[in-house]
Write a structure and sequence with these properties.
The complex is a heterodimer of chains A (125) and B (180).
Chain A: H1 3-14, H2 20-65, H3 69-120
Helix pairs in contact in A: 2-3
Chain B: H1 3-17, H2 21-43, H3 46-63, H4 73-95, H5 98-115, H6 120-126, H7 129-140, H8 145-152, H9 156-175
Helix pairs in contact in B: 1-2, 2-3, 2-4, 2-7, 3-4, 4-8, 6-9, 7-9, 8-9
Classes of the chains: A mainly alpha (125), B mainly alpha (180).
Chain lengths: 125, 180
Amino acid sequence: MNSFERDLHDALSSNGEFDPQGNDAARKEAIKTYDVKLKRARILTWVFLAFLAVVMAYLAILFVITNNMKIMLACVVAFLIAHAGTNLMKLWYWQMNTKFSVLKELKELELRVVELSEKVSPSEQ
Amino acid sequence: MKSRDRIENELLVLKCQMGDTKAFEELVNRWQKRLWRHAYQLTGDRDTAWDAVQDTWVAIVKGMRRLQAAGAFPRWAYRILSARCADCMRKRQRQRKLSDRLAVEANSAEDTCADVHDSLKGALARLPGERRALLGLRYAEGYSTGEIAEILGVPEGTVKSRLYHAREQLRRLMEGRSDE
């Protein structure tokens, strides 16, 4: 880095002093948005699962009390679809969770390797 | 970006994708200043920069789970921020009446010329936002040209030539010569 680039670095680093008050407000807002999103996703999932459970219960009762063969068949088909929907949701969650867990463990391992290599040869870092 | 910093960053992104609030808080602490500085270089206005940064975090939260590779987070975040900065500036410009805007801009340009004509800071203030942001990424944040190319989504050669032109324009402005 030559002297012009060093001056440029200093000028750009000090260009626009960081406002801690604005930072705090923006940080809180971002975290709040994240929390709200997580909560909303959780609520939506439970509402959807509860809805499917209610639908399945209704279909099971209808299947028992009806004498019409067509309605019985429709109940079975709808019940199976609702059941598959529940299972697909669980499967999707399990798949995503496993994917992120594996990636996270790999990154933790990578970080550990970097930490150890820094300890072994600190001058190279 | 150093490899350790990069890995820690990727780890934080992965934890956020799994729904870890503390990790998200740390990610915000880590990136807020960099994003704000980039937004400020682009817009040249403190409040607009904060608006853009806030909008960017909202977009990041919304799209976090869809982010395929955690390593792509910096590029993705800077792209969102650049788009938000452009939106915010357009919005601000629309809010002002044309005549008022022209008067304010003319005055501020004259003031800048008179006050800090020869200094580097003055020259930086007069540099177009995109070029200032590019220099910021290179010299304030310390990204390599390859990393900047990834962030901006352009070839590395383009970044090098843009950096060259930005430096040249800055030199010309510092020497007091009129630009292009």
